[in-house]
Specification:
InterPro entries: IFT52 (IPR039975), IFT52_GIFT (IPR055458). The chain is α/β, with parallel strands linked by helices. The chain has one domain. The chain has three helices and three strands; from the N terminus they run αβαββα. A three-stranded parallel beta sheet has the order 2-1-3, with no helix packed on it. Helix 2 links the parallel strand 1 and strand 2. 8% of the residues are buried.
């Protein structure tokens, strides 16, 4: 039950990032695992995949994001900034 209540940190691995959970963030991932649910995103970014994610990390993507991915990320940032103003 407790594990289901933990928030999720999502590491992007779809754009051939320089750093991943197994290369570059391995020790940080091990420390965070006790309090957070750690996942790697190896598919295209969609709204469904970001549901419940508290932190999305992409570190040095080597490929460009698609227009749809950029639009979705922009909408997320706008909605967060609106919520902070309330």
């Amino acid at each position: 039950m407790e594990k289901e209540l933990r928030s999720t940190i999502l590491f992007n691995a779809y754009k051939k990032e320089v750093f991943t959970t197994s290369n570059g963030y391995k020790s940080m991932q091990k420390r965070l695992r006790s309090h957070w649910k750690i996942q790697s995103l190896k598919d295209e970014i969609t709204p469904e995949k970001l549901i419940g994610v508290k932190l999305w990390i992409t570190a040095g993507p080597r490929e460009k994001f698609t227009a749809a991915e950029m639009l979705w990320l922009e909408m997320c940032i706008i909605s967060i900034s609106i919520l902070k103003k309330l």
